[in-house]
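Page 37, continued from 36.
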């Protein structure tokens, strides 16, 4: 495991001695141009005690002005051009994206280069951006989506004590301390031509590309040294952190363990097939979806992942722009009901102690273990592989997504991940898939983050620690419609032994501080 990740780190962190990378995607028939700047300096470059600085810097750049134009003047100028631009920050990269009509390329050039090379960093822009970012960390993520919160909470748990722990948006104390001076210093220290990949797609000219390259070479040639991306924490057994929230509507669950493989390895293709059959995002054919949602109506989504999936609550397809060398497997059980919620709806369930969380975890891990032990069938393998080869083409429906995936490919030392993966999938055998599951997957050692209602926390903790039987709780009306095979399986699942190690409880107010 360590050798694999060290190799990834060497690729990432020797870029101080390299020239600016270039990715081109000429589309002569397009009427658009897309320009992307990928800096390899994501949130892991945030200094300790200044968590959130990289995102704050990037956001202040794109929402601010330049040495020539204020932010309001830029908006006034570009409004008739229907141009748009944005910044996105992840753990290991910061990306600026500009999209505009080819007829406005010349007029957009000084706007683009001004923002990247000569950001204004006005105090008023900084204060506005910092206020929005702080509001997200302190309020929005804790109030708007319990399921997205559970994903961020798992990363906090999985990487605790490392540079991968904190949310990209930062922490409460980290953001509070930041000043416009910190942003200016961070920009000069970490945004250089040495850690920059320039991408361009669409109907652009060679002269325009050369202009852009020449301009970006004005950035400093070196950048500050960064620590390598952290490994996920090892664990003996299943360690659970229950986060309590007043009046939570359900139990949002996210599980994960270290996965020493990513897109850079050819074996990833075989793992994609196994994962797609187990829990492809937003797909009703997957095993977890069928067992937990479809057969039992427990919630509205149960998915598995072999890499980070950005904003899974909104994105139907995995977006580009979040390449990571430190990887982990995860299962996302979107909120299941608590005991209090079930009691309020069905008087026949007045005596239950816990809701569906313990049962759902047991079912998900049992199904995964059955897949590891028994492997896929030839029929399921062929159907899933054929589906993926077609489905992956949807990842690159727009020039911006095409360019994004090409740039991500460079991160993983690949030329074109999408086309290469199609070729690899074609060559994969059923035995390859079954072997790779046994090699990389397990269900006995992992971390689980559960965001749930205050009333559920203690009973759920006790049930998990004691491996108590957790019978599935149905309303009488629903139970009457279920076939006997499901009820028999429920009895088996309710007694399925989990390798529980530790279970702790933490109030939501203490998270992301």
């Amino acid at each position: 495991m360590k050798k694999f990740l060290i190799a990834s780190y060497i690729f990432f962190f020797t870029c101080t001695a390299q020239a600016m990378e270039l990715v081109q995607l000429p589309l002569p028939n397009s009427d658009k141009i897309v320009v992307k700047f990928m800096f390899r300096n994501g949130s892991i470059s945030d200094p300790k005690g200044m968590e959130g600085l990289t995102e704050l810097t990037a956001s202040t750049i794109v929402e601010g002005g330049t040495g020539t134009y204020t932010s309001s003047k830029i908006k006034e100028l570009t409004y008739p051009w229907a141009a748009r631009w944005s910044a996105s920050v992840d753990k290991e990269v910061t990306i600026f994206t500009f999209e505009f009509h080819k007829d406005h390329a010349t007029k957009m050039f000084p706007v683009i280069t001004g923002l990247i090379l000569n950001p204004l960093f006005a105090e008023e822009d900084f204060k506005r951006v910092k206020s929005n970012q702080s509001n997200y960390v302190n309020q929005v993520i804790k109030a708007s989506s319990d399921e997205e919160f559970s994903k961020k909470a798992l990363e906090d748990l999985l990487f605790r004590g490392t540079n991968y722990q904190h949310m990209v948006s930062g922490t409460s104390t980290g953001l509070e301390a930041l000043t416009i001076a910190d942003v200016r210093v961070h920009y000069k220290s970490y945004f250089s031509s040495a850690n920059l990949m320039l991408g361009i797609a669409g109907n652009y000219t060679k002269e325009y590309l050369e202009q852009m390259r020449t301009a970006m070479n004005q950035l400093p040639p070196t950048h500050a040294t960064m620590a390598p991306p952290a490994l996920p924490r090892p664990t003996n057994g299943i360690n659970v952190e229950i986060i309590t929230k007043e009046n939570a509507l359900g139990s949002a669950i996210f599980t994960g363990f270290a996965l020493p493989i990513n897109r850079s390895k050819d074996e990833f293709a075989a793992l994609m097939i196994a994962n797609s059959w187990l829990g492809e995002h937003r797909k009703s054919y997957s095993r977890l979806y069928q067992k937990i949602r479809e057969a039992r109506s427990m919630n509205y989504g149960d998915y598995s992942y072999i890499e980070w999936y950005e904003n899974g609550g909104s994105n139907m397809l995995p977006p580009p722009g979040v390449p990571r060398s430190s990887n982990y497997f995860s299962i996302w059980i979107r909120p299941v009901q608590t005991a209090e919620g079930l009691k309020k709806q069905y008087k026949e369930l007045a005596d239950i102690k816990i809701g569906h969380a313990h049962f759902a975890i047991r079912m998900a891990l049992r199904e995964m273990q059955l897949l590891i032990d028994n492997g896929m069938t030839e029929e399921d393998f062929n159907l899933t592989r054929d589906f993926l080869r077609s489905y992956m083409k949807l990842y690159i429906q727009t020039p911006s997504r095409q360019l994004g995936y090409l740039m991500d490919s460079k991160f993983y030392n690949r030329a074109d991940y999408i086309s290469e993966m199609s070729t690899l999938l074609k060559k994969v055998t059923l035995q390859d898939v079954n072997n790779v599951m046994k090699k990389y997957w397990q269900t006995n050692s992992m971390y689980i983050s559960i965001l749930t209602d205050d009333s559920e926390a203690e009973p759920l903790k006790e049930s998990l620690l004691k491996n108590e039987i957790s019978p599935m709780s149905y309303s009488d009306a629903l139970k009457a419609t279920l076939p006997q095979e499901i009820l028999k399986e429920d009895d088996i699942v309710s007694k399925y032994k989990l390798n529980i190690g530790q279970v702790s409880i933490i109030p939501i107010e203490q998270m992301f501080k």
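The chain has two domains: 2-216, 238-510. Flag for discussion at group meeting. The longest helix spans residues 123-143.
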